[in-house]
Amino acid sequence: MNVGYARVSTVEQEAGLEAQLAALGREGCEKMFQEQTSSVAERAVLEQALDFVREGDTLVVTKMDRLARSTQHLLEIVHQLERKSVALRILDFRGERVDTHSPQGKLILTMFAAFAQFERELMLERQRHGIAAAKVAGKYKGRKPTARAKIGEVKALRAGGVGASEIARRLGISRSSVYGVLDHEAARS
């Protein structure tokens, strides 16, 4: 059985999720798992998919970054699948289709994953250098604060008896940011 897994990081990426599901459907996936979560967060649905697959199945994803956060993580998933005699198929892995049913597919996957990790590390290094240069030039402003811009809204909702989790959901910020705003305001009082 082909089992599909699709993931997006944010609610705003709905079109991306729909495109992934359509591609997995065209690939003949009989069962689909989908979730909206960051790659670095705990991914309960991915764990469900990995638990669901059985010997002879193929886990299908559209791209590596939808499945794994690093080369090491990808190889851990592949190893977990291999223990269950389950193959992995990535529909677009750096322009290539990769399937671990064959030794060649496993080799290509490992090599491409290493190159992808290397490129990511180079990109992060260039980003750090660019930020450092921008700071020296006085042009770096940093990330726009999200919770601080919503202090008034947080306070108003809290005064109206709304809980921290609901405030976070309504304003699109984390619960810890809500508590940070409330703690900061309490300290100022």
Characterization of this structure:
- Strand 4 (87-93) and strand 5 (96-99) form a beta hairpin.
- The chain has 2 domains: 2-117, Resolvase, N-terminal catalytic domain (Rossmann fold, 3-Layer(aba) Sandwich); 148-188, Arc Repressor Mutant, subunit A (Orthogonal Bundle), CATH 1.10.10.
- A 5-stranded mixed beta sheet has the order 2-1-3-4-5, with helices on both faces.
- The relative contact order is 0.08.
- The protein is of the alpha/beta class and 189 residues long.
- It is built from 8 helices and 5 strands; from the N terminus they run E-H-E-H-E-H-H-E-E-H-H-H-H.
Name a few traits of the molecule.
189 residues, alpha/beta, Rossmann fold, Arc Repressor Mutant, subunit A, 5-stranded mixed beta sheet, 8 helices
Distance N to C terminus: 61 Å
Helix content: 55-70%
Total count of helical runs of at least 4 residues: 8
Number of domains: 2
CATH superfamily of the largest domain: Resolvase, N-terminal catalytic domain
Mean of all residue-level pLDDT scores? 86
- Give me the side-by-side strand order of the main sheet: 2-1-3-4-5
What integer value in Å does the Rg equal? 21 Å
Helix- and strand-based class?
alpha/beta
**Percent strand:** 5-15%
Principal-axis shape equals globular
Query: Can you count the beta strands?
Result: 5
SSE layout and pairing:
Layout: E1 2-8, H1 14-26, E2 31-36, H2 44-52, E3 58-61, H3 64-67, H4 71-83, E4 87-93, E5 96-99, H5 103-136, H6 151-159, H7 164-171, H8 175-188
Parallel strand pairs: 1-2, 1-3, 3-4
Antiparallel strand pairs: 4-5
Helix pairs in contact: 6-7, 7-8
